[in-house]
């Protein structure tokens, strides 16, 4: 992908559907009795991987333009897949599905691409094993491929060492197949889309602080779902607009769930001119239009409790930080090292090539005011968020930015380049 500097960002856009909610809509639709119609589903590769896996387990899922219809077969309706389940690049698919597979009455193998095979799975193997699951890491390295031998599960109380919605959701989904309450205690409450959607489908999940209690129910019931735009995708345009002169943008219909809205809090703390319009609730999720204007940013400290609410946005926050007076310090974000790439290493390496003053630390980055970025040949390490963050930097760099391995953007944001063209002179 080639990016040239733009004069300004203007207009109104929609971003594709929320990735986390799209995965969950397929999974819970499949496990419910009846038909779930999904509007606003993200047709990105990760979510299509979730569809493929459920089709492989006998779930009839139709895609008609932008409408996805899941013919749910209830909690006990999945069939043994004929082949290995392949999740592609999607950590969410692998970790959430493991919770669904562990209590089935069949065995299967679940695997994915090279990036997936390098990501840690002990964090789900341990609690699932404590629940009575039989999971074998085939290479004995606590990573995928995993062989999951369906077993009878029981409830647990799990103190999670990491605020991870994938770990939490994996355990909640497994707990649907137990008899008593399961409790999960998180260090900080992570994104709660699973809890919201399960309750919407007739489940029984309660949350007090960062303790989640799942009370098993006999059956889930299908319901139609409207998925809002993904705040993680909107983040790229929010930053693009803030750092480009004479710009103003409205991003319509974006999910602003408080467990996801850290990007808004942080960009406002950096002096970003951001306002929320038309706030409303759809299927239990908060939604708004986000209005952004070019701003003179200042540095900030991002740490502790807010990290889970903006974990996927840190690569693009690093770009914003180059344009902020003073220093921006990002701490307590070790989780960045175990995403699609080591996002501390990859962002530091590639943004440095463009002239950013950025230093990697063990748990984050320190970025100093370095607004004179220059175009360069950079690469994404096949990490969609890295590719898109570098593209945003390219919009305000001098000269041409050539991003290698940019196809991975389709994982979460098909049409990203066209959207940029729609709001600028790119
Ligand atoms: O549950 C989810 O949908 C996700 C949770 C987060 O991962 P962790 O649970 O590993 O923090 C996030 O980074 C990922 O993009 C999506
Ligand atoms: C980390 C991400 O996704 P996943 O864990 O599902 O691969 C992401 O989309 O940034």
TrEMBL record:
<dbReference type="InterPro" id="IPR013792">
    <property type="entry name" value="RNA3'P_cycl/enolpyr_Trfase_a/b"/>
</dbReference>
<comment type="similarity">
    <text>Belongs to the EPSP synthase family.</text>
</comment>
<feature type="binding site">
    <location>
        <position position="312"/>
    </location>
    <ligand>
        <name>3-phosphoshikimate</name>
    </ligand>
</feature>
<keyword id="KW-0808">Transferase</keyword>
<keyword id="KW-0963">Cytoplasm</keyword>
<feature type="binding site">
    <location>
        <position position="339"/>
    </location>
    <ligand>
        <name>3-phosphoshikimate</name>
    </ligand>
</feature>
<dbReference type="GO" id="GO:0005737">
    <property type="term" value="C:cytoplasm"/>
</dbReference>
<dbReference type="InterPro" id="IPR036968">
    <property type="entry name" value="Enolpyruvate_Tfrase_sf"/>
</dbReference>
<dbReference type="GO" id="GO:0008652">
    <property type="term" value="P:amino acid biosynthetic process"/>
</dbReference>
<feature type="binding site">
    <location>
        <position position="19"/>
    </location>
    <ligand>
        <name>phosphoenolpyruvate</name>
    </ligand>
</feature>
<dbReference type="Pfam" id="PF00275">
    <property type="entry name" value="EPSP_synthase"/>
</dbReference>
<dbReference type="GO" id="GO:0003866">
    <property type="term" value="F:3-phosphoshikimate 1-carboxyvinyltransferase activity"/>
</dbReference>
<dbReference type="GO" id="GO:0009073">
    <property type="term" value="P:aromatic amino acid family biosynthetic process"/>
</dbReference>
<dbReference type="InterPro" id="IPR023193">
    <property type="entry name" value="EPSP_synthase_CS"/>
</dbReference>
<comment type="function">
    <text>Catalyzes the transfer of the enolpyruvyl moiety of phosphoenolpyruvate (PEP) to the 5-hydroxyl of shikimate-3-phosphate (S3P) to produce enolpyruvyl shikimate-3-phosphate and inorganic phosphate.</text>
</comment>
<feature type="binding site">
    <location>
        <position position="166"/>
    </location>
    <ligand>
        <name>3-phosphoshikimate</name>
    </ligand>
</feature>
<keyword id="KW-0057">Aromatic amino acid biosynthesis</keyword>
<feature type="binding site">
    <location>
        <position position="19"/>
    </location>
    <ligand>
        <name>3-phosphoshikimate</name>
    </ligand>
</feature>
<feature type="binding site">
    <location>
        <position position="385"/>
    </location>
    <ligand>
        <name>phosphoenolpyruvate</name>
    </ligand>
</feature>
<feature type="binding site">
    <location>
        <position position="166"/>
    </location>
    <ligand>
        <name>phosphoenolpyruvate</name>
    </ligand>
</feature>
<feature type="binding site">
    <location>
        <position position="91"/>
    </location>
    <ligand>
        <name>phosphoenolpyruvate</name>
    </ligand>
</feature>
<feature type="active site" description="Proton acceptor">
    <location>
        <position position="312"/>
    </location>
</feature>
<dbReference type="InterPro" id="IPR001986">
    <property type="entry name" value="Enolpyruvate_Tfrase_dom"/>
</dbReference>
<feature type="binding site">
    <location>
        <position position="164"/>
    </location>
    <ligand>
        <name>3-phosphoshikimate</name>
    </ligand>
</feature>
<feature type="binding site">
    <location>
        <position position="119"/>
    </location>
    <ligand>
        <name>phosphoenolpyruvate</name>
    </ligand>
</feature>
<keyword id="KW-0028">Amino-acid biosynthesis</keyword>
<feature type="binding site">
    <location>
        <position position="24"/>
    </location>
    <ligand>
        <name>3-phosphoshikimate</name>
    </ligand>
</feature>
<comment type="pathway">
    <text>Metabolic intermediate biosynthesis; chorismate biosynthesis; chorismate from D-erythrose 4-phosphate and phosphoenolpyruvate: step 6/7.</text>
</comment>
<feature type="binding site">
    <location>
        <position position="20"/>
    </location>
    <ligand>
        <name>3-phosphoshikimate</name>
    </ligand>
</feature>
<dbReference type="GO" id="GO:0009423">
    <property type="term" value="P:chorismate biosynthetic process"/>
</dbReference>
<protein>
    <recommendedName>
        <fullName>3-phosphoshikimate 1-carboxyvinyltransferase</fullName>
        <ecNumber>2.5.1.19</ecNumber>
    </recommendedName>
</protein>
<feature type="domain" description="Enolpyruvate transferase">
    <location>
        <begin position="5"/>
        <end position="420"/>
    </location>
</feature>
<dbReference type="InterPro" id="IPR006264">
    <property type="entry name" value="EPSP_synthase"/>
</dbReference>
<comment type="subunit">
    <text>Monomer.</text>
</comment>
<feature type="binding site">
    <location>
        <position position="343"/>
    </location>
    <ligand>
        <name>phosphoenolpyruvate</name>
    </ligand>
</feature>
């Amino acid at each position: 992908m080639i990016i040239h500097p733009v004069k300004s960002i203007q207009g109104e856009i929609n971003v594709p559907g929320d990735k986390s909610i799209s995965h969950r809509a397929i999974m819970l639709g499949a496990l419910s009795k009846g038909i779930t119609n999904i509007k606003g589903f993200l047709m990105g590769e990760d979510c299509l991987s979730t569809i493929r896996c459920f089709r492989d387990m006998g779930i009839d899922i139709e895609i008609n333009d932008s409408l996805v219809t899941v013919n749910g077969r209830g909690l006990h309706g999945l069939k043994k897949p004929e082949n290995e389940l392949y999740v592609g690049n999607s950590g969410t698919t692998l970790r959430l599905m493991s919770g669904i597979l562990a209590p089935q009455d069949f065995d299967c193998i679940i695997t994915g691409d090279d990036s997936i095979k390098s990501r840690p799975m002990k964090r789900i193997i341990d609690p699932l094993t404590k629940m009575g699951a039989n999971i074998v890491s085939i290479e004995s390295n606590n990573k995928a491929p995993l062989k999951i031998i369906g077993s009878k599960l029981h409830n647990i109380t799990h103190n999670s060492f990491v605020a991870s919605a994938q770990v939490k959701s994996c355990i909640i989904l497994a707990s649907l197949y137990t008899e008593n309450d399961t409790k999960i205690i998180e260090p900080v409450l992570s994104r709660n889309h699973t809890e919201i959607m399960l309750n919407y489908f007739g489940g029984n999940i309660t949350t007090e602080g960062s303790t989640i209690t799942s009370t098993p129910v006999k059956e889930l019931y299908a319901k139609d779902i409207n998925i809002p735009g993904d705040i993680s995708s909107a983040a790229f345009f929010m930053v693009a607009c803030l750092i480009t002169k004479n710009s103003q943008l409205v991003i319509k219909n974006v999910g602003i769930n408080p467990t996801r809205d850290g990007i808004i809090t942080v960009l406002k703390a950096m002096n970003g001119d951001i306002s929320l319009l038309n706030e409303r609730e759809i299927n239990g999720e908060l939604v708004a239009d986000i209005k952004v204007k070019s701003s003179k940013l200042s540095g900030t400290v991002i740490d502790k409790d807010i990290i889970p609410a903006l974990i996927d946005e840190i690569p693009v926050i690093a770009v914003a930080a180059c344009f902020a007076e003073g220093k921006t310090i990002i701490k307590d974000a070790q989780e960045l090292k175990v995403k699609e790439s080591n996002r501390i290493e990859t962002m530091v390496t590639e943004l440095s090539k463009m002239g950013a003053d950025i230093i990697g630390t063990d748990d984050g980055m320190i970025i100093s005011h370095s607004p004179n970025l220059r175009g360069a040949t950079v690469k994404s390490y096949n990490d969609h968020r890295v590719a898109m963050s570098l593209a945003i930097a390219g919009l305000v760099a001098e000269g041409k930015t050539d991003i290698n391995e940019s196809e991975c953007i389709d994982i979460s944001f098909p049409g990203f380049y066209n959207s940029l063209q729609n709001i600028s002179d790119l």
